[in-house]
Records
---
Amino acid sequence: MAAADPAMTADHGPASGTPVRRKEDARLLTGRGRFVSDLALPRMRHVAFVRSPVAHGRITGVDTAEALEVEGVSAVFTGEHPAIGPVAMRAQSALPGYVETDQPPLARGKVRFAGEAVAAVVATDRYVAEDGAEAVVVDYEPLPPTVCAWAEPAHPVHDEAPDNLLLSRTFRAGDVDAALADAHVVVDRELTTNRHGGNPVECRAGVARYEAADRKLTFWSGTQVPWIVRTQLAELLDLPEGNIRVIAPDVGGGFGVKAVLYPEDVALCLMAMAMPGTALKWVEDRVEHLLAATHARDHRYVLRAGFAADGELLAVKADVWCNAGAYSVHPWTAGIEPLMAGGLLTGPYKLADYECTVRGVATNTSPSGPYRGVARPSTVFAMEALMDSGARALGMDPIALRRRNLILPADVPYRMPSRLVDDSGAYEACLDRAVATFDLHRWRGEQVRRRRDGGRPLGIGVGIYNELTGLGRAASAGPRMAFRTGHDACTVRINPDGAVTVFSGVTSQGQGLETTMAQVVADALGVDYGDVEVRIGDTDQSLWGFGAFSSRQAVIGGGAAHLAGEHVRGKALALAAALKEAPVEELDLRGGQVYMAGQAKPIISLAEVAKVAYLQSDRLPEGFEPGLEGTKFYDPIRGAFAAGAQIAALEFDPATGEIGILDWVCVEDAGRIVHPVIVDGQIAGSIAQGIGGAMYEHLVYDDAGNLSTGTLLDYLMPTAGEIPELRIGHVSTPAANPTGVRGVGEGGTLAPNAVVAGALADALGVEIDDLPVTPARVWELVHP
Amino acid sequence: MKITVTVNGERHRLDVEPRRTLVDALRDDLGLTGTHVGCEHGVCGACTVLVDGEPVRACLMLAVQADGASVATVEGLAGDDGTLHPLQEAFSRCHGLQCGACTPGMLMTAVHLLDTDPDPGRETIRAEMSGNICRCTGYTGIVDAVAEAARRRVTSETS
Amino acid sequence: MKCPPFDYHRATSVADAVDALQAAGDEGKILAGGQSLVPVLALRLARPAVLVDVNRIPGLAGLERRDGVLHAGALVRHLALADQRQHPLAAEAARWIGHTAIRSRGTLAGSLAHADPAAELPAVLRACDGAVQVAGPSGTRRLRADELFVGALQSALADTEMITGVELPVPDAWGFAEFARRHGDFAVVSVAAARFGERVRIVVGGVAGVPHLVDAGDLATVDGDVSDDRVTLLAAAAADDVDPASDLHGSAGYRRALTEQMTLRALADLAGHLRPVREPA
């Protein structure tokens, strides 16, 4: 997967579909990236948070006197500080029965999880700030902690929810009990999935500076959602929205963890407002990240499925508990995981009779939030476990059973039992190509050979999934929040010299959106990729964007970029036509030159047109405004389902539990592909995170609510030594949006749980109910 | 404490607290923010630099320990005219980076790997790069990039 | 995650280091490779008043084999230990430590003094019945491996003492096996096996507070016999002899099973190295 030379685009062919050199690479490869962690401002001070060592307790006293004596400490803030005290964050949803709860920027009155920020120390540098933080004395009166979301609550986390239930909803279609009664076989599974999290290589980071004279706040933040952050901050800080500038420059990975407005963010801004003119910087360290950045996937599924004798899936009944942690995550609410779980549990399978009750349960653990694939790595594991159990009960081939139930092209648009409308139907195509690429026949043969001749038992696992991407206003699968995230804006500006600056509402944490947007605009407008520069992540530069989540940006931001590019192309051609007195319908813009139909030589350059538009108004024809730019919004209204199938061969050593991945194939329908290498990179990276979650990553709390995996010595992320060579293929069915793309950022994470667990069952005949699949777990299953 | 460190060929005199790590001195005292901080406990590899030619976790070395040493960081890889180092070039061609946070550590680890083993196989590359965590790429592009840089170097040396 | 403040003393000699440690009372700490100490400091789990940097003390990085024993200086880095050919078991074990950027700094004596029961080199020292040379305020002393390791992360070294040299008898056959979660991780269980004459010493790491020397009774007298049957019996004996605790990375039963499997692998490795290692000419 080698990218081409930039010269490849010099023939003025389309940039989309080709692996152009990424715009981001030159600075990121040479150490010239601009990350928030790198930012240094004059007279900047550094912040360290004091964090709760107890999971649940009343704060009976905070003594900051000693901390203020530490040389270099300039201020200490607590939850009761007048600058902090009046403010509370409250994730809102109109969902019936949802219990709204407050989250203070710094704990007030009580602490609800180990790692919650209780106080903040401002000092000359981070070393001194940590010295100060160590000197803050906080007294706690412990309360009994609740760690498990499906155990009896020990003591309410929030008074408003005495049973810790923040939200519950039942998805219902048809008559599930009747369908189960009619089933030829009924299978039951009880599954749990392992809490883990994003752990981008750059942790969270923020710099806030407030200018009191004009009441303006600038917040540099490693966020995926600068516009959402701005809106929320305006409300929380009581500032006009236009007075807040949020800048997300280079961001070192996000994966959902940075799509959250955190209490530390709000505290940092409030402290900056209390210290006008002083820039305050907080860079989260890894221990803080593991403790207090959002976690995910701490779920339990109690499942029952009924199948007909021919394998038709007749009914699924499910009870789901999602551990929401101590606070309803802002702004997504505690509904983010349970609602996605209930809405998409049935995945790519046709089903009429469905009943699924999902719950978001508060516990004394770090809040759960969005993490790549939101809930679906767990639901795909659950659904594929039912398929595998069903196949065993029916004596059917597991892949044949899946085929029997897949949503096919003829079924599309397919209304899922959760009432989401699936526009894909490419599942079987993905599965077919995956099976062929994998060479299932050969691996089955190897499996038989090993069973006969000895050798490590080999299993084949499969996972098929749909991925709801690019959600438009009508396709929301999440909680009913006060905003809909269906649209993004893009401004395309042709500069006086004819080069193009794009102000896009997308944000990038490694996805290469500068590149992708440049490709889309270059083609829509008719200029070379090299002549397009893209500015993203700054609320003062581009008009609007909801940011990076739900694999939405290529679809929605890309759509806006395409529309804006076309719009400005129209304007440029109209002006060219007027200037050259040529019929506009016979003009074409390619490679920054305007051509007349049938003529080989351009009649005028875009640069010349732009010069007139900006600098030579005396040449402007009647009725033309100066300037050459345009802004467009795009909303796909519905979403674009992406499809995918993964299949892999794994071997297991029954004596040690050792797991070896021998081959791993993934085929996805990402729609039309703008940058093939970036798309494959997204898929490979998401599979790797999925494998991490399936086999290595586990945030473990002890019964007292202490995080037992608080460093990277215990929280294990896979390295180049663990991730296998991945074979990635494509089925490209263009989606019904301006660029034809389907989102691609998350799909890869969805299958590995199912694939690894399925392979284990296939190899050793043991069903694994609790993830992750570790050597120790494998050994325990084989030696009960 | 006063120390002298040569970074990418340039000599610097610094006055640092003994507890200051080398990576903090590079980033905050010298403004060389190309070297990144990922975990500060020696696991993730993001801060890997070369000290007197050997790869080192700059979060586990105190700046005072580098007194008199020669440090190579990512900022020194490209030529003064902006020409990318062959590994940087390969990382770009093979999509060996996404967000760029692990990239400086990956590059410095790979520079040392190819200095000691000019023609490593993919398995060796995977083993030797396994001290550096990347959260974005799934490592495919990184392994491709190191392999390609090695191949190009071997080819250019034998032609 | 920033270290708490401390003073720093760059020692110029062993005597200077010992003096500095003594001056610090029980508040001094030796900084060698720093690969274990600096994380502990960054987590503020320790707050020594003085770090005594021994890295620039001359003469402590030597490797010399004399009379069947590898004499290694305290500052021999893991990379150097992995590269030397005079003690193949130590070389093999060193290759399992972390990653190149860890091995480039980490030192043999530092690893032994840190006394992590899951670390590779303590297991090797014990398997080879090695010893360390220690310098302190009242002179030098020699501690055998059995005496050095007291408990998890606890050695018999006083706060004012430092290891200056390591004696590693060279076995005439050896084997090493390790099971770790990921490439370069600390072992869940590791096994070092060393044959001296007719006795095999098997040491298991990761199953107790100190590297565990397996008491295999008469089975350990192999007299050239490392047949499959004997290996199987020894591995079972090793599994029987350990009493591991359960933790995040595995139950006691699992660690016991790994002990058996890693012993099998280490002894198979040993059987493959049966030709005696000769003194280099």
---
Amino acid sequence: MNITLRIWRQQNGSDAGAMVTYRIEDVAPEMSFLEMLDVLNEQLTLSGDDPVAFDSDCREGICGTCSLVIDGIAHGPEALTAVCQLHMRHFDDGAVIDVEPWRADPFPIVKDLIVDRSALDRIIQAGGYITAPTGTAPDAHATLVPKDAADRAFDAAVCIGCGACIAACPNGSAMLFTGAKATHLGSLPQGQPERNSRALAMINQHDAEGFGGCTEIGECTAVCPVGIPLNMISQLNSDVLSALAPGRTRRPQTG
Amino acid sequence: MAISSAVQGVSTAKRQRFLRSTVVLHAAAAVTGLIMVLYLLAHMYGNYKVFSGQVAFDGYSHYLRTMGEPLLPRTGALWIIRVVLLASVLIHMYAIIALWRRMRKATAGKGGRRYQSRKNPRGVQRTYSSFTMRWGGIIIFLFVIYHILHLTVNAIAPGGASESPYERVVNGFSIWWVVATYVIAMLALGFHLRHGFWSALASLGANTSPARRRLFNQTATVLAVVITVGFLIPPVAILFRGVGS
């Protein structure tokens, strides 16, 4: 396969940046998109040029590090697929492919296709953790978890935090990510004591990072490589609104 | 127990801050939007009195001013509805403008057009109505001002002024361009409701499953069609079938 790539090149955060065109020949259809970029970078290095900087780590779709907008779609044209699992057989021979970084104000560009996603880490940090007694491990059946709750929490926990939802969102909102994180602990019995305060702390951090609001368009869930459902945003909305209900604002401090 | 001592209350000061969160702003837009939908349904029902003739229509108009009497003063109930609607419009616009500014800031002012690639300008699955929410809202807002000036306060009178609301409606909608502006506004309203009704329910936390998402979207489509067609039948009937002439 012969491919023409138009790649966003930007030396650093203060550089203006521009799309640069590269031609790459003899691409094997079995290659992943990232392997194709590796081949390009080998060519660039051999010819003395600066290789294209892009994020990747596990390359098996579980770490959420890879982050490319391909032809205007976060993680490219295949549904439920991270870029590292996207193979060149899904593109036509002679295709012109646009490659850009995640774009959102809270995601400053570090170099080329790499953006700083620590805003997402700060949202998770704001949510905190569940309060559990320290000491020896509790009995596995000490807290009974209904099957539905366990399934729901797991569906949320599969979020790999890649940030594609934000890259795809016309509002630049991180509500699908935040909703998944709030749903994860908020669905389990162990997560109930802090459910209200967690939802409020996370939405507060979400807004403070400069993400936009959710207008329920659904682009986020359409590009999500692990299929986080849109209704986790509604669960976060529900948690935030019920936490603000007058009866919930001052909990008696017992114990 | 150790666990319960960690439960934190939310102080009043913090609560103030959360009232400006994106979630609360969207909830405010959702509730006020749903209030306006209820009003639209009542308004649409009232419009059909035009088919019952001048006495019925003007009588209904008079009733709207006397309903609630003697408990309420004349036009008291009507003014309560007007104040609730005006507050709804203002809160709806305040919340949406605040959220629009946050969208602009989060996307360098470009929204869904912030990528160089022009290959998928409509994204993966988004609906036409979701694109046009903000422009649709502006069109509806301008139309409502024109509509109130025309048929409520009688300030502009295409087709001839009259003290009879029935005659104002029939005179106005006998003119093709009055009907045309009405059609444009109702189509904008239909698209606004197609996405807005679903979005309002989801923003209030009612979207709890993929089945609910489907149901709410189907309901929104039905509501949008019913309201658009329902509002268009009387003026189109006046224009083409000469109702009232």
